[in-house]
Amino acid sequence: MTARHPRSTRLTRLPVAVAGLVTAALALSGCLFADPDTTTQAAPTAGAEPVVEGVPDELLPFYDQRLEWAACAEGFQCTTVTAPLDWDDPDAGEIDLAVIRQRALSGEAEGSLLTNPGGPGASGVSFVRDSIDFSIGDALQESYDVVGWDPRGVGESTAVRCFDAPEMDAYLYDIPAGGRDSAEWDADLEKRAEAFADACEENSGGILPFITTEQSAHDLDLLRAVLGESELDYLGFSYGTFLGATYAKDFPDRVGRLVLDGAIDPAASGEEVGVAQAIGFEAALKTYMGACVAGDTGAACPFAGTADDAMQDLGALLSAVDAAPLPAQDGRELGADSLMTAIIAALYNQGNWPYLTEALTGALEGDPTAAFFLADFYNGREGGEYSDNSTEAFNAYNCMDYPEDPEEAVEETERRIAEEAPTIAPYWSGASVCEHWPYPPTGTREEIAAPGAAPILVIGTTGDPATPYAWAEALAGQLESGVLLTHEGEGHTAYNGSSDCVNEAVESFLVAGTVPQDGLVCS
Length: 523
Hints:
Blueprint: E1 8-9, H1 21-32, E2 45-46, H2 60-63, E3 68-72, E4 76-84, E5 94-102, E6 112-116, E7 118-119, H3 124-135, H4 138-143, E8 145-149, H5 165-173, H6 183-203, H7 213-226, E9 232-237, H8 239-250, E10 255-261, H9 270-293, H10 307-323, E11 326-327, E12 333-334, H11 336-346, H12 353-364, H13 369-379, E13 381-382, E14 385-386, H14 390-401, H15 407-420, E15 456-463, H16 469-478, E16 482-490, H17 500-512, E17 520-522
Parallel strand pairs: 6-8, 6-9, 9-10, 10-15, 15-16, 16-17
Antiparallel strand pairs: 1-7, 2-3, 3-4, 4-5, 5-8, 11-12, 13-14
């Protein structure tokens, strides 16, 4: 599996309308590291009666949990749900799932809406707690108890643990010895990948074989039941679409209203994912460059000429930074790989373009501050610490979910990326952690039909670099009840963004059960 393809998460905090990168950093820091409310809290609130009809006896101790909700943060309730470590062997141990909810603002919930922000490895708890107004429209907040959770292996749930902060800094940012493509460079990257995998095994308490989407889909059904819901209403973004589709495969009769935004093709192999994303980000980068040289990004463009001219100049900048990394005040050096991480982070949303312009301008002037801000946001880093374990969980899920591809597929990937994404190609692939993972993958890449499921709304954005539009077409076509909604635009995912058409379709479907016309196109 290609090692450097970006995580398919929904970046929810970058597109904040704040003037200036420093001001944005101050605003974002409170969002990234919001502390739970430590004031006196009310007594715990008893949860609903669990739905246990048809549950096998061996799973009843889990499905029959009666939740107790306690106030947390400001205006939210939190609880912990116990799940089997291994759904195929419920006696093998237990894990905890951290759950948060905002009660329906109307005071009369029509039910629970579970939501997953993507990743794999993104925290659903922080997604709801820190970003609910950005992520979830008023109509859904009025009608639903909005529920987020940290999937197994993630965040405040029983989590994958690998490196401490200094080790993670070295893993993500240190520049290998010897120069790119040298034997010394490659050996250094392989050593890092092996050390990362070994640390995950040593520090994760034996959970790594069970950090899979298949296991997580069973956790999702458990959450549905203990919330007192007979069917699942769900809003999944990016990787969350694969989780939602897997749920529909396993529990088609329990599908309520599912929205899968920024869809992943469950049949795409790891190498196919890497190719599609590299080409997608190259295309998004060229679109940005066209806007930049035209003066349409909200900041003075450091490039001139055509979009092709700007892409060539960016290639020269990347090569220059690769040869002579830019020193930062904290002692780190910005190499081409970290600069590419910054570029990718900004391309998730068109609202991030001013930040990208500032980062590239700074790099051309020898100042890596803005680029490090974007790269650090992508990696969940602030002040030398990491706000989450998304890097660890991302690798844990992918190494178990994606079977190893044959060598000829890897060679074809490298050829296509070099040909169709020439600016990105030199900084895309690297040593694979999964080659050193202590457990073989158990996932399969295959089409999901979910026969018997209620209508499932699948959304694709034509200019989405992280989850290309073709994946939404593929998933909607595979699902027997799939309904495709196309958003013509740029950026990753569509709901609660700039399209009223998308918002109305999603909210009418989730609140009223109105199924959009298959093939609806929103600009």
